[in-house]
Amino acid sequence: MKSTFLIAAFAAATAGLLLPATASAESKKPNVLVILADDLGYGETSIQGNPQIPTPHIDSIGKSGVRFTSGYVSGPYCSPTRAGLFTGRYQQRFGHEFNPGPAQTAGQAVGLPVEEKTIGDRFKEAGYTTGWFGKSHLGYEPQFHPLKRGFDEFYGFLGGAHDYLDAKADGKNPILKGTEQVDSVEYTTESFAKEAVSFIDKNKKKPWFVYLPFNAVHGPLQATEKYLARFANIEDQKRRTFAAQLSAMDDAIGTVLEKIRANGQEENTLIFFFADNGGPTRQTTSQNGPLRGFKAQTWEGGIRVAWLAQWKGRIPAGQVDDRPVIQLDILPTALAAAGVEAKPEWKLDGVNLLPYITGEKKEAPHEALYWRFGPQIAIRKGAWKLVKGTNPESQPLERRGAASVEGAELYNLEKDIGETNNLAASEPEKLKELAAAWERWNSELVAPKWIPGNAGKKQGAGGGKKRPAAQTQAQSN
């Protein structure tokens, strides 16, 4: 498809819709909304099976479109996942393997490399107005600011976490509107949604791209009485506050979805919802359902997340798809919807999911998915997963040492989603196959550009065993 109009017409035809002959390509460009939850466990939303905390608005995205039950992220914690989302590339290819750390210790070169084009850049080039409302965690220095990374508007904070009620709680990581500090905030979850709604409303006559990364449900655990009152039956205060935070985020997402409906744009808006990693159960009670492990681990509980997509009239409603997908796919999928063909020189790892969602392609979108996080590794190929994670009981989580396949474990996820039955000894050929595939991928990577606890010092390049040892870092950074 070499023109925007032909791509839009093809998408409409797959849904049984025909565009008027007089329709302009510009007017038919779909809006794109990417919603990102922070530290939300795989098993927490009601569409994922949690009866304790109703999430009707989040659920509606999956019910009106597709829910990927094997949806993944390329990093087991915050910043690397976001770097992968923004580039459509494994973040280890350009050295963004770890979080930047707090503003007080992060160096000037620590952030999403400026050489990498972002999803904001891509959509600006496609004629879109772009807005970013919420958390960044992709660098503190001016060159990493959202307004320098392809976005027309920004309201949020640059760090990894923030107080929900006090805009001035962290002087090194303030809430910003553009580049100006915000002095007060009601409740960040509501504020981010309010800013997104305002942006969507004032740009309703032109195509827009909105990135809405909530800090919910990341710590600190804070909620207002309005939301706490909904869960008076939960006796554990930590769990009650977490439930209130999730319910508040669901409400906030609902206000954004309602504005899109009110503007008559629901059938011209592609929506994604996912989480940046699994839940840090001990810190916030965020639960990962049947999965082993949690945030900052390459077990399923750290990298497998709720993953939903909706485009009414284009994506058939009510689909449940178990084919593995990853957040790297969001950029090429959204660009394809906008009529932009990914170029080979972009070297994307993500793929356009639209032909898979519409049924044009029946096979899996990826032959394999890969992870490297310090000494932790993983590869999923079909039903099989090779993994070397950390000891779930280790505190803080261990990140020292070079990554290798030595001592990795093998699981069949179709039969053993909880990774309880290690088949490495009984399936030596499958073990060898996955290990070799991971080694090939690892040989293409570079060393981390920084290491936690040593963020200001640039590291040397190199893949595999040439990489420097990773250090320990608090999960909140």
UniProtKB/TrEMBL annotation:
The Sulfatase N-terminal domain, residue ranges: 30-340
Keywords: Hydrolase, Signal
GO molecular function, one term: arylsulfatase activity
Domain of life: Bacteria
Pfam families with a match to the protein in the record: Sulfatase
Signal sequence bounds: 1-25
Disordered: annotated segments: 449-477
Keyword flag Hydrolase: yes
Record flagged with keyword Signal: yes
Family of the protein in this entry: Belongs to the sulfatase family.
Listed name of the protein: Arylsulfatase A-like enzyme
The species this protein was found in: Roseimicrobium gellanilyticum
